């Protein structure tokens, strides 16, 4: 299959994100991880920092690139000639929000297909918010994020 977009906040990228990117790269000829720059979630990292960390963390994944995009994902789909949106599904709790997004995107662009991939069970409860909180309280996040991300988070945290 041709090009898929993999959108998210990636604040910061975790092993869960990487797991999904690897799976997507085995299915699609080209995967574009799209770092959302819309400040919906009041992110800890700037878009540039999030892109840089994602690029470094995903550099061994074949045929993947990382970009930032300020607008609607359906416009990004058109610009990149992409046919699919990849989203990771962890627990059932993700479903409600993901349904809203998938149907809304399809309402806006009929050809927009959302494809859900499940991570390895060990990442099924991992998310960026938890990682930030653990780091904030001095916990070890080495199990959840690559070394380059761990370093960046610790730089942001007051000692
Ligand atoms: P968003 O704000 O769009 O949810 P995220 O950066 O939180 O962006 O997530 C981007 C995508 O990666 C989403 O589809 C999310 O479900 C998926 N994802 C994040 N963490 C994991 C994980 N541990 N396992 C599987 N998918 C994940």
Class based on secondary structure composition and strand pairing: alpha/beta
Output mean pLDDT: 94
The succession of helices and strands, N to C, reads EHEHEHEHEHH
How many strands, which pairing sense, and closed or not: the largest β-sheet? Answer: 5 strands, parallel
The level of helicity is 40-55%
What is bound: which ligands? adenosine-5'-diphosphate
* SS field, number of helical segments: 6
Q: End-to-end span in angstroms?
A: 47 Å
Number of strands: 5
Q: Which word captures the global form? A: globular
Beta-strand percentage? 15-25%
What does this structure look like?
This protein is of the alpha/beta class and 159 residues long. It is 41% helix and 18% strand. A 5-stranded parallel sheet has the order 3-2-1-4-5. The protein binds adenosine-5'-diphosphate.
């Amino acid at each position: 299959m041709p090009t898929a977009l993999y959108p998210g906040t990636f604040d910061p990228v975790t092993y869960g994100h990487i797991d999904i990117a690897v799976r997507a790269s085995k299915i699609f000829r080209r995967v574009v991880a799209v770092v959302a720059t819309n400040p919906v979630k009041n992110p800890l990292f700037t878009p540039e920092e999030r892109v840089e960390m994602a690029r470094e963390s995903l550099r061994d994944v074949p045929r993947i690139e990382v970009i930032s995009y300020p607008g609607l994902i359906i416009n990004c789909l058109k610009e990149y000639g992409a046919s699919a949106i990849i989203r990771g599904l962890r627990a059932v709790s993700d479903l409600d929000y993901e349904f809203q997004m998938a149907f809304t995107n399809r309402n806006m662009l009929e050809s927009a297909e959302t494809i859900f991939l499940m991570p390895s069970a060990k990442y099924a409860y991992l998310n960026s918010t938890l990682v930030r909180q653990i780091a904030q309280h001095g916990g070890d996040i080495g199990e959840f994020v690559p070394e380059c991300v761990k370093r960046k988070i610790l730089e942001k945290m007051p000692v």
